[in-house]
Amino acid sequence: MAGQLLTVLVWALLLAPDGAQAAIYTFVDHQGTVHFTNVPNDPRYKLGVIRPQFRGGSSRATKAGDPRLYEEHIQRAANRYEMDPLLIKAVIKTESNFDCQAVSSKGAQGLMQLMPGTAADLNVWNPFDPQENIFGGTNYLRQMMSRFGGNLRLALAAYNAGPGKVEAAQGIPLIPETQQYVAKVIQHYRQMTAAAAPSSRWLGAAN
Question: N or C terminus: which one in the chain shows less Cβ crowding within 10 Å?
Fold first, then answer.
């Protein structure tokens, strides 16, 4: 009964009108299960704010964060996983609009919107911690880039929909959310690249 009441509470918060938010504490256990409560009676609980947000290009905006707060983490993750920091920023922009406490309707969490199971596989135990989330998300994006031979569009599609669906479709799946997601990340990436005027060696993969 307690679990059912908590589920009702979580969904009520997720379906609240735009701009509504409530203090909810969450943690991910070692099996990748996400736990929510409004009474943090376990030291593993961390404060997270549930907001109505839909992953991958919804018209419903999240609360925008300040990208400058995460610059150091992005640069370090880019160096570790040999990724373009502007691509990481483009993914974060699309996923959460730099809101480190974002939670999607599907349960994806944090800046790079990691699902609980994926976060656990990546050893991200607090997805609301910006450093953990950025390093985990960048690691996963690097894995997708390697898995799909450096094809940026396929890697982004796999990041959104899962690599199995991309392999089954032998391309970007015919899923509107995924197609819109890939287009938005590419758009942000191009805009950021043009503004920074760096080398275009990474952007070539998007053409």
Answer: N
pTM of the model: 0.69
For the domain bounded by 2-206, which CATH number is listed? Answer: 1.10.530.10
Which of the residues in the chain have pLDDT under 50? 1-22, 31-32, 49-61, 200
Give the model confidence (pLDDT) of 3-58 as tens digits: 443 443 444 444 444 444 445 666 665 544 556 676 677 777 666 544 434 344 33
SS3 per-residue string spanning the chain:
CHHHHHHHHHHHHHCCCCCCCEEEEEEECCCCCEEEECCCCCCCCEEEEECCCCCCCCCCCCCCCCHHHHHHHHHHHHHHHCCCHHHHHHHHHHHHCCCCCCECCCCCECCCCECHHHHHHCCCCCCCCHHHHHHHHHHHHHHHHHHCCCCHHHHHHHHHHCHHHHHHHCCCCCCHHHHHHHHHHHHHHHHHHHHHCCCCCCHHHHC
Q: Where are the domains of the chain?
A: 2-206
Catalytic residue positions?
95
